[in-house]
Amino acid sequence: MNSNKIELLENFADHCLFFSPGKQVQNIKLDKALIHARNRHTLPGFIWLSLHQPTEAQMSMVAEVFNINDLLIEDAASAIQRPKAERYDDQLFYALHSISYSDFDKRLGSVRSAGLVIQTGTVQMIVGTGFIVTIRHNTQLPDVLKYLAEDPELIDGGPLSIVWAISDRYRRYLFAGCY
Fold it and tell me: Where is coiled-coil annotated (predicted)?
């Protein structure tokens, strides 16, 4: 992949992190992630690339880097997904819905009488050998790094540990009043 494409990918990525056994999480540049992606079957650890509302063209670039199944590209670029878990060859695709309360009283030009308004979003996750790509549409990711730092052994689960941590944080937020 040429340097122009790498720069484009870095411009729409929330973050690119490298998790290595026994080491602290490292924020890395995408060119270093590409080296790991090419050697992911022999190098320990995994990459977490987080994206915000990528286009289909941007997802095609990501798919090229991680050899993501073509059927996932259109799904990942679309914000309209039902919650699901699907398998595509040796890759997994998860889609979750998020809800959050938006306090419009603190925003200028908003409907002041609305008070709290519910906002919905979608988080999609593509998991493969040595990587996870998260895609968020109209939502923020929960603070998963802080959560994982509390129990570093969770990372031993590889990319699926990120899926679990994100899912668990949303579940805890959604059902906070039920426990």
Answer: none
132 inside domain: yes
Q: Is the pTM of this model over 0.85?
A: no
CA 100 to chain centre: 17
175 φ, ψ (degrees, to nearest 5): -110, 25
Q: Does 146 fall in a domain?
A: yes
Q: How many distinct structural domains can be found in the chain?
A: 1
The verdict on residue 77 lying in a domain is yes
pLDDT digits (tens, 9 = 90+) for 58-111: 888 889 888 898 888 887 777 777 889 999 889 999 998 887 766 655 555 555
Give the whole-number percent of the chain exceeding pLDDT 70. 82
Write out the DSSP string of 37-93.
HHTTTTSSSEEEEEEES--HHHHHHHHHHHT--HHHHHHHH-S---SEEEEETTEEE
Q: What is the CATH number of the domain that holds 85?
A: 3.30.460.20
pLDDT digits (tens, 9 = 90+) for 111-145: 555 556 777 888 999 999 889 999 998 888 878 88
117: left (phi over 0), alpha (psi -120 to 50) or beta: beta
Structural domain includes residue 104: no
